[in-house]
UniProtKB/TrEMBL annotation:
Belongs to the peptidase C69 family. PANTHER family: LD30995P (PTHR12994:SF17), SECERNIN (PTHR12994). GO terms for molecular function: cysteine-type exopeptidase activity; dipeptidase activity. It catalyses: an L-aminoacyl-L-amino acid + H2O = 2 an L-alpha-amino acid. It comes from the Bacteria. Residues 1-21 form the signal peptide. Keywords: Dipeptidase, Hydrolase, Protease, Signal. The keyword Signal applies. InterPro entries: Peptidase_C69 (IPR005322). It is an enzyme of class 3 (hydrolase). The keyword Protein transport does not apply. This is Dipeptidase. Gene3D superfamilies: Penicillin V Acylase, Chain A.
Length: 547
């Protein structure tokens, strides 16, 4: 999982988390309602603190060097020459409206190059500081690993600007030679795509300006015994990744669910997801209708609802239809191994975003990072413009951490809400949706107003107004969610449900006391399961006694 930008080795050493747990969805120009390009990201890790990081633009003297630390461990990897000027970044986006996200798929263990200097996380942030466009980013990234070696395992990257979106997949050479093998494909206009911890590029055209690849991507696979067919039949995913149950059911299934929400006919790929049979799921599909920012936000909140993998439909959901399963991912009963479904929305997310990238607006608003912390299902997505240089206090580094609670920190406030809902999901989620939708509707309306207003302002004023706008909504939504958490605690304490005269106003007796609450109990399915399991012991019987 990507960590925040590391200012020092000491800070870097604290940034440790799980890498094999991210999702990125893509909508190209022509597939979106406003003709923007969008990519998403869920940074999922059990130890990642959700915050927003930034680096200012900077000029560097000739001969300056940049220290590189591995993102997942903070380990010092080496130094590379700095460039004369680096661009400002905010989160996974830079001042030019370039955004990059990732998901790790590991691949063949023997291809990890422990002699490389640049790992996948450093590759993203170094590139954001050096490239203006998606195509420039691909060149910067591939040049970096060619010149300095690639330290990480298999990785998929979403790389996008206001004109186009690409998927690039990369894996090292195990120290057998410097660099990495890779393939990058441009997502055609009008299509949606995605990746989720499994390599998604299978066969690809060898002569196509919209497909780029390392010169040795096929020959290296042959030399290692991963492939022995004709060049045109080369399958990157099957050669370099491991296609097993986890890769399909735990990874490709997430992308399938996104496709299924927006395009008919996706059932034909269920044999691939379930058993690795039939035609592999395509890299992209055409949606039945265009998607907007809100569609992409809700895609990040997916739990396989209304699909064969719906997490609320089996006994594991409990009496409150909880669409979450605690880790580990698999478990055994009588020596038979079973899996927990792995949905896009998950409890251990540190932060997530929808990057909205536009080519027909002023520079200050070319990129909008709709940013949220903790579980995407219960977060509030706030627009952070690419011109923002000051991180809102609620997202700022040093405002709490994974072991230090802060009621000013959006991460802790959203956990306060989400972790209450995990216990009584079906009862609490309507209240959460009421506040969440209210805030996001208000934000969406306010965005239209502020963007129309700043269009007429000078560049400096545009940046000031948009920065203040992002700051206000980030801190305001955090305060409102703290109120929501308090409300949930009061309303649902001790298994009861307080009565209300209207949402947020609790009912009292004429004497001013708390009105008798509702007893929410459990679902019918749960009661039936209890009766089946312990019915004889719990059955109410007619006892004859004195009357």
């Amino acid at each position: 999982m990507l960590k925040r930008v590391i200012a020092t080795a000491a800070v870097a050493a604290a940034a440790i988390g799980s890498a094999l747990a991210c999702t990125s969805l893509i909508a190209s120009k022509g597939a979106t309602a406003d003709n923007s390009v969008m990519i998403t990201y869920a940074a999922d890790s059990h130890t990642l603190y959700g915050e927003l990081y930034s680096q200012p633009a900077k000029d560097h003297p000739k001969g300056a060097m940049r220290k590189v630390y591995e993102w997942d461990t903070g380990r010092y990897l080496g130094e590379i020459p700095e460039v004369a000027h680096t661009y400002a970044t905010i989160g996974n986006m830079n001042e030019h409206g370039l955004a990059i996200s990732e998901s790790t798929w590991g691949g063949r263990e023997e291809l990890v190059d422990t002699t490389g200097i640049v790992d996948y996380g450093s590759l993203i942030y170094i590139t954001l500081q050096r490239a203006k466009t998606a195509r420039e980013a691909i060149k910067v990234m591939t040049d970096l690993v060619r010149d300095y070696g690639y330290y990480s395992s298999g990785e998929s990257f979403s790389i996008a600007d206001g004109k186009e979106a690409w998927i690039m997949e990369m894996i090292g050479k195990g120290g057998k030679s410097k660099g990495a093998v890779w393939v990058a494909r441009r997502i055609p206009d009008g299509m949606i795509s995605g990746h989720a911890n499994h390599a998604r590029i299978h066969t690809f055209p060898l002569k196509d300006k919209e497909t780029l690849y390392s010169p040795d991507v096929i020959d290296f696979a042959r030399s290692q015994g991963y492939f022995d067919g004709k060049d045109e039949d080369f399958d990157f995913s099957k050669a370099y990744a491991i296609t097993d149950f986890s890769a399909l059911r735990g990874c490709d299934a997430r992308v399938w669910s996104f496709f299924d929400r927006h395009a008919k006919g996706m059932d034909k790929y269920l044999p691939w997801i379930m058993n690795g049979e039939g035609e592999p799921m395509p890299l992209w599909v055409k949606p039945d209708s265009v998607v907007d920012v809100r569609n992409m936000q809700w895609a990040m909140r997916d739990h396989f609802e209304d699909t064969p993998f719906d997490m609320t439909k089996d006994v594991g959901a409990g009496p409150y239809k909880v669409p979450y399963r605690w880790r580990p991912m698999t478990f055994k009963v009588d020596d038979v191994e079973y899996t927990n479904e792995r949905a896009i929305a998950t409890q251990q997310t540190g932060f997530s975003f929808v990057a909205q990238l536009r080519d027909n607006v002023p520079d200050a608003m070319k990129g909008v990072l709709w940013f949220g912390v903790d579980d995407a299902n219960t977060c509030v997505y706030v627009p952070i413009y690419c011109c923002v240089t000051k991180v809102p206090h609620c997202y700022a580094h040093g405002n709490g951490d994974m072991l230090t609670l802060s009621w000013d920190a959006a991460f802790w406030v959203h956990n306060y809400v989400a972790n209450q809902a995990y216990n009584r999901y079906s009862q609490m989620i309507p209240d959460i949706r009421r506040v969440q939708n209210g805030l996001e509707d208000s934000i969406a309306s306010a965005v239209k107003v502020v963007e129309a207003e700043v269009m007429t302002l000078p560049d400096v004023r545009q940046r000031e107004e948009l920065s203040n706008f992002s700051d206000f909504w980030a801190n305001h939504s955090t305060k409102e969610f703290k109120k929501l958490g308090d409300y949930l605690l009061v309303k649902y304490i001790d298994g009861n449900i307080k009565r209300e005269t209207e949402p947020g106003v609790f009912k009292r007796t004429p004497e001013g006391m708390c009105a008798s609450p509702e007893y929410g109990g459990y679902s019918e399915d749960y009661y039936r399961a209890v009766a089946k399991d312990a019915g004889e012991r719990l059955k109410v019987t007619d006892i004859k006694g004195s009357k």
